[in-house]
């Protein structure tokens, strides 16, 4: 019983007819359209890039994906990215950085520096060949997104620009999330001068989870690359942004591996943002709700927030649950019932229970001493708000610096799309106060 696939197979066959009709929808409409289209974005590079780079951007319509030093990893070999032909060293002092920024207006040195600072491993280091994973190009495990050249503030604080260019925000996706779903979040960070990594799992790998299997191996590869990147230069840091319990548990597994690899790396984590999580216990109902939402996508009741109609007939968020809460359709109710029965068994399996307990223990008692920000909602149908608030209380009692924001009426992992202004203001304030401390000190 080391694999979930055998356990899930028979019950899933029974509810296939229930789920198939609804699986065709996508999460793409859950992401806010705050930024220009890719074609528009690519035009901003016209004065900084070669024609070949522009052609690539128009044809691929994807964000930069750093792969030049990951070519031996089969799950990223199909990612194509323009290789910038520069060889300038990344500056190590504020003065050098300002001079390079000034020169970049003519010579495109900024792109060179950002390209080099995005290296995952040193050129002199050799990584042992990894197991061959056959994932489709659409299911690449993770991508590196470079900061946008226009985000560099050459007239502002050079210390702040340096701090951003030496910080990587690692975005850990929710169950069923794909790279395209995290792209808008990555773009928000890169537009402000940060590096970003988007990390997701194919649903098939979650369903066939095995101890030390593909999921754990992918996490191990990411941990090794992040550790190597941190070792390249003093002053580099990490920020984690997790989504739902899947992203949060992935974060716990990463912390475990960091502690075993080099515990000093924990001190380089400067902040953690937790979106729509956690439930710090193996709860069958929560797992059933999460998988149901992943299967049914926008047809699931989990994607519906608490809304009502105002006097003009417009849909507006409710401030409480006084009105009727959306109920799941009969088909979804049946699916939830079956899944809950399945996970009531699965989560009690010795190997599964022990692995979850280890990760949850790390997240509860062995997190780094960095500040934490929890973004959640009373309308979340997957992660109960009281579970999040209970965990926040425990972390504060343990002496952690914790911030929290209840969006009240927005659905699971949909806070950014529903209220982008509040969401981004929370992120901006958190980063300014907890991550970019060098900016305040230099002013």
TrEMBL record:
The record's comment on protein family reads: Belongs to the TMEM53 family.
Q: What is the protein name given in its UniProt record?
A: Transmembrane protein 53-like
Keyword match Nucleus: yes
Top-rank taxon, per record: Eukaryota
The record ties this protein, via InterPro entries, to: AB_hydrolase_fold, DUF829_TMEM53
Q: How does it sit in the membrane?
A: Single-pass membrane protein
**Subcellular location per the Swiss-Prot or TrEMBL entry:** Nucleus outer membrane
Native species of this protein? Cucurbita maxima
Keywords assigned: Membrane, Nucleus, Transmembrane, Transmembrane helix
Q: Which GO terms describe its cellular component?
A: nuclear outer membrane
Q: Where is this region: Disordered?
A: 29-48
